[in-house]
Amino acid sequence: MIEFLKILFLSKFVLLTPEPITINGQYEFNLTESIDALNYNARINIDVTAMMGKFLEVDVVEKLDILSEKFPKGSVVVHLIESSAGDKVTLKNLGYSTSENSMDLSLKYPKNAELGKSYDTIIIESNVLLKEVVIGWANSK
């Protein structure tokens, strides 16, 4: 219960793309402010609603099936890099979420990676065209 309240009140979402972007292969972000991995709920969210919008009218289970077909496990990988130390963590555990008006991919911070790290570069690799997506970093204290 305490963990739930922490997430509810201390969650933070950083929008990494002020405008939708298209990723065809690889895309690198050099951040002006670093992002922090405070716990294992930290994740990259990729909002794919713009490219999947025609499926918003179907039920939740069907939406999740469509997401897993369009974006199979391993099709999107994210690398978090701390440039000064050269540290790199790879996020490859692809998950799916949906609501009435959105469809999202998420890649969680791996349980074997060190917490409390800050990252200033993000590299997204995708073998599926990501068209007009919005990307953010979610974390909680």
SSE order and pairing:
Layout: H1 2-10, E1 11-15, E2 21-37, E3 43-47, H2 49-52, H3 60-70, E4 76-82, E5 87-91, E6 94-99, E7 102-108, E8 117-140
Antiparallel strand pairs: 1-8, 2-8, 3-7, 3-8, 4-5, 4-8, 6-7
Q: Could you give a short description of this structure?
A:
The protein has 141 residues and is of the alpha+beta class.
What keyword list fits this structure?
single chain, eight-stranded antiparallel sheet, alpha+beta, 8 strands, disordered N terminus, 141 residues, Jelly Rolls
Explained architecture:
By secondary structure, this protein is α+β, with helices and mostly antiparallel strands. The protein has one domain (2-140): Jelly Rolls, CATH 2.60.120. Helices cover 17% and strands 54% of the residues. The chain has helices spanning 2-10, 49-52, 60-70, and strands at residues 11-15, 21-37, 43-47, 76-82, 87-91, 94-99, 102-108, 117-140. Strands 1, 2, 3, 4, 5, 6, 7 and 8 form an 8-stranded antiparallel β-sheet that branches. A hairpin with a 4-residue loop joins strand 4 and strand 5.
